[in-house]
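Private note to self, pasted from the team thread so I don't lose it. Backbone tokens:
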């Protein structure tokens, strides 16, 4: 930008020229895009960041949240007369439940690697019907051809001490349940699930035993024995 320096014909004209030169120099050095706008000294608001709430995992150290749509488990719900009791196999290793909806969890030893058995209770009237949960568990598996394992799911019912217990079994590549991160679980081929849904006094209780195929088969009798010991009330 070239500025022509003209002789001053009067004091007023000189002052106007000086003012014009000042504005022109400011535009040259800082730009004039904000002309006519009032600048604010207040800091700009930072863009709000939202993070997906963690999903429930089997290993959350006690900080798990319930899945969306489920209310928190009321304090002392599922205890006393509203409890469901059972006898755990002697060789299973009891672990501290990692969330309030896990009433028990066990490490199940086996020659092909450890399995895990978890007992879920979601609160009075919560958790859903047995078949819906069986399908949800089966959807966590795929068959050798990559198809859904729901087509190979086996279900049955047994009566234990007056309780009608729903049994489900499915095998294949285990994709896992929900995790605490957005990363998908690592698929585990050659896995099997034995599950049981038992009616408690105020809600269903869910027994989910997963592990390497050989381990689950080795511990099948132990799982069956535990289901056969179910009864209402505290142990």
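Design output:
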């Amino acid at each position: 930008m070239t500025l022509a320096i003209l002789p001053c014909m009067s004091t007023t004209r000189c002052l106007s020229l000086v003012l014009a030169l000042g504005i022109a120099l400011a535009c040259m050095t800082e730009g004039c895009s904000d002309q006519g706008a009032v600048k604010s000294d207040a800091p700009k608001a930072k863009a709000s960041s939202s993070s997906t709430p963690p999903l429930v995992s089997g290993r959350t150290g006690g900080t798990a949240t319930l899945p969306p749509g489920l209310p928190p488990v009321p304090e002392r719900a599922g205890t006393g007369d509203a409890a469901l009791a059972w006898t755990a196999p002697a060789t299973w290793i009891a672990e501290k439940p990692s969330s309030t909806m896990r009433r028990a969890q066990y490490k199940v030893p086996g020659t092909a690697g450890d399995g895990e058995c978890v007992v879920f209770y979601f609160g009075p009237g919560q958790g859903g019907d047995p078949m819906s949960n069986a399908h949800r568990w089966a959807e966590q598996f795929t068959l050798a051809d990559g198809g859904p394992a729901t087509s190979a799911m086996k279900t049955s019912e047994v009566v234990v001490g007056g309780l009608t217990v729903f049994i489900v079994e499915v095998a294949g590549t285990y994709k896992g349940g929900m995790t605490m991160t957005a990363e998908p679980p690592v698929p585990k081929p050659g896995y099997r699930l034995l599950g049981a849904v038992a009616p408690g006094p105020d809600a269903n209780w869910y027994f989910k035993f997963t592990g390497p195929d050989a381990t689950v088969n080795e511990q099948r009798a132990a799982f069956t024995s535990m289901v056969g010991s179910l009864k209402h009330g505290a142990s």
